[in-house]
Amino acid sequence: MSPRPPTWARRLLAWIVPDDGLGRTVLADLEEEFLSRWERGPGGARFWYVREALGLAAHFGVRRLGRGLGATFAPGRRSRDLGRAARRLRRAPGFAAVAVLTMALGIGASVAVFSVVKTVLLDPLPYEEPEELVALFEWNTVRDVRKNVANPGNVRVWEERSRALANVSAVSLVQPEPVVAAGEVGEALVVYSAPDFFQLLGVEAAVGRTFRAFSEESEGWEAVLSDAYWRERFSRDPEVVGRTLDVDGTPVTVVGVLPDEYVVHGQEGDLWVRLDLTQGDQATSGRWLYPVGRLADGATVDQARVELEAIAATLRDEYPEFNAGWSVTVLPLQTEVVGDVQAALWLLLGAVGLLLAIACANVAGLFLVRGAQRDREMAVRASLGASREDLVGQLLVESLVVSGTGTALGVLLGHLGTRVFAQGVPDAFALPRVETAGVDPGVLVLAAGLVFLTGMAFGLVPALRAAGTDAAEALHSGGRGSSARGGWVGNGLVVAEVALSVVLLSGAVLLGKSFSELTAVDPGIDPASVVVGRVNPTGEAYEEDADRVAFFETLATELEARPGVEAVGGITFLPIEGWGAATSMWPGDRPPPEDQNRRAADVRNVTDGYFQAMGLTLLQGRSFDRRDVPAAPRVVVVNRTLAERHWPGESALGKPLVINWDDRTPWEIVGIVEDVRMGGLDTDPREAVYLPYAQAPFFGWLHVAVRGTLDAAELAAELRNGVAALDPGVPVSSVEPMEQVVSRSLAGPRVTTVLMGVFAVLATTLAAVGLYGVLAYAVSRRVREIGIRVAMGATTGGILRLVVGRGALLIGLGVAVGWGTAFAGGRVLSGLLFRVDPADPLSLGAAGVGVVVVALLACLVPALRATRVEPLEALRRE
Amino acid sequence: MSPNQFLGEFEQMVLLAILQRRDEAFALEVRREIESRAERTVSRGAFYTTLQRMEEKGYVAWSEDEPTDRHRSGMLRRYEVTAEGLGALRASRDAFRALSRGLDDVLEAS
Fold it and tell me: For testing the chain B interface, which of A1, A26, A30 should be mutated: the one with the most B CBs within 10 Å?
């Protein structure tokens, strides 16, 4: 074995030490010492050499970096370079524009999405020790409703018997109530709250105070306002504390205002009213609470869950009538608040991560290509005496101009994107806290830094190559070897980019298909030409049920008499919106089922015009009419699912139905209507019962639907005017076209789908640019070879095949890898897909084909350029 | 040299080591000289950087010699101290002496 130091260490050192006599001396001295050590033992000598070489490389590397930066930012010289760089970039506008845009998009998209995800998912909730808080629900195991509101009696038992929970408190479902505030009549969304609810969360009032426990000094009605309600109704007047509001005829004293950043648990409200929630029991008071608990010291969520499930089991035994088929759900409050959007947000975060990776790969590729085109220029300049510092400096300035512009634009886009996301998306997504999302400085630095450094690093490659030392020269003139090695990086980048694009595009196609499946779902109603609004007649004039029934009947009669109005009807809870009353029921012509075998159904109280106004199809029997008065036999209309489940193979018409919430006298089924998606378009139809409002006026308000030939604004005006004509004191709120209600239930999927689509298109475009770059690079390196081929008679087709073939190979590899990844990662999507298999071959195929087509187009440009190579010209170039 | 430019401690050591080696002042010998006489390890990088800096200042000059082994690629440098280098060394020594005059007791004691 000849005494030679490790080649790689020697090359590394040769590349880094100054390219002058001193550098050669350093190498020679090191080798001299190496030789003398070799005689004492080759292994030790090699180890010694590597150690010394690394030390020297670090020393000279740091010095060079320092000098390079110093030289670069030395004022006079760099302003000259800056002018030169600007001129050069003007001559290559395509490169500059594409590089700048790539960087801006990569940074902008990732910063915006990450900032939102961080605010919504990662930042702790603004409560005291939020990790100790759990959200509690009752779980209807029969209908598989995991997050049902809870019964006050059950909640009280949980608190009494649980050791894992130190405290439990709750707020009610939201209740629209007429409120007289500052002399103005209006409707406000009221949430009834246990006195210790805000204390348990650790939320302090922004103005005034939150609730105190009931006591002798404090027994009246108290309210705290939401920040929004305080702003809209009281113009942020701090004097509001101590004032009295009239809530549905009851005087209520305002004691405080909640902070702006308060994250609502339960439903959004305008004001919270203190109520003693410990009064309700299992028998009479139904389920209407959103409880929260605080874990006892050292207790975990799992312990609380196990314990509460055991308590729920004993509650089933103690109150079989009420609790059969009910268990309990325990979730960390953070999980509950973030809710359903979690999956979509993580998905989008993954998508922008991929996009950022593609953008970086692309920037690297672009600079490599540009560098390759300038090898010659660099070589000439070096041979004319330009020092390495000159060349590095010049390229550094150029890269700085491009990367700096791109990064700055990206940061701007990130800001804008975050703002758009924070303000445009909340309605759609119901993202908690998203309004507070601002650009996260950490992620901004990370994304911008990553892209910027990529640009700078790859921008310097040509300078290092041109001014390389002996060793670098050797590496370089290895010819095939080096270009194969350099090409390997570029090829790898392209395969990765194509693969990532396929993954993103597959996701987008799957979501798109899922979305079109969703919109194709028949909601069971005909929302076109319908306007809905909540009408809430309360107060002394409407205390009697008969008064409200009469009010709604008169309203319908009056409105239907107007030209352009066809049908008018009211319902307690709008379909599609997803929430409302439900209870268990069973056929009255058979013995009642065991408690645990009872089936629950949605219950909706409707006026006689409802089915017609909302456009439900009557399948059998009749709908309600004015015969169905309190004194008449009690009748119901059921939906198809309920009829088929309880009376399979026979007609349910005329059958008796027991509803488990009154005296259990059976109701007679007089009609069967088509199913309606009560819980949103992506839910299966559930069993549902419609009661005539005249016989069951349990709720004070109704959502009144007005169908007509007028346009939406005119129908809305008819509704408002109609109510005002009867009684100007009756508030009308939430007036909107029914189509908007339906569309809202699609908003989440729509946003996810559109964003994924945008990301996928961006990714594919960027991948195409990257592919173009690498192939253009390859062609520019092979001009001489192509020239010779042409000179020797290669046809245009042959040359095209040569270039496109190479591109096709890369594309093929990328698509294969992408398919594999999309197939394996499809699970991620499954929760977001509706009636679409995450491995749907058609969608994956379409995504692959899409990427292939775009990528092949990108190949064609350099391929066509290759066919125009003039043999003589090419040969002269060397 | 300008009189207000004094040599650093390490520069003085390098110059003195070159003078000590006389005709044998190859770079690696100089470094070994410092390590053995001053009983300290000398960072290779700092050493070469210092040599280069003093060459730029004109304190040292060098000539190249054939290496001992013909497989070797580079040349070995033999360094010598120039007249300017000697001047700087003297100036630094004088300054040191002037500053430490009368402090022999203290310096001895320490």
Answer: A26
Q: Mean pLDDT across the stretch A367-385?
A: 71
pLDDT tens, A340-368? 677 777 888 888 888 888 888 888 777 77
Q: In this complex, is the C-beta atom of B71 within 8 Å of any C-beta atom belonging to chain A?
A: yes
Separation in Å, CA of B100 to nearest CA in chain A: 35
What are the tokens at B4?
A: 């207000």
Contacts of A3 in chain B (CB under 8 A): 71
> CA torsion angle for A542, A545, A549, A554 (degrees, to 10)?
-30
Read off the pTM: 0.65
List the domains of chain B with CATH numbers.
9-103 (1.10.10.10)
Identity of the amino acid at A20 = D
**What is the C-alpha separation between A608 and A157, in angstroms, rounded?**
41
The verdict on B63 touching A (C-beta cutoff 8 Å) is no
> Cα–Cα distances in Å, from A538 out to A178, A288, A557, A718, A765?
7, 21, 20, 21, 59
- Whether residues A55 and B27 touch (CB distance < 8 A) is answered with no
Q: Choose the most confident range, by mean pLDDT, from A214-228, A361-375, A561-575, B77-91.
A: A561-575
Residues ≥6 apart with Cβ < 8 Å to A381: A390, A391, A466
Q: Give the best-scoring range by mean pLDDT among A84-98, A293-307, A378-392, A823-837.
A: A293-307
Question: ipTM for the complex?
Answer: 0.79
Single out the residue of A701, A721, A390 nearest to residue A571, CA to CA.
A701
Question: pLDDT of B67-86, one tens digit each?
Answer: 555 445 566 788 889 998 89
Sequence-ordered list of residues with C-beta below 8 angstroms from that of A553, at least 6 positions apart, any chain? A607, A626, A694
DSSP A478: T
A620, two tokens: 């059998």
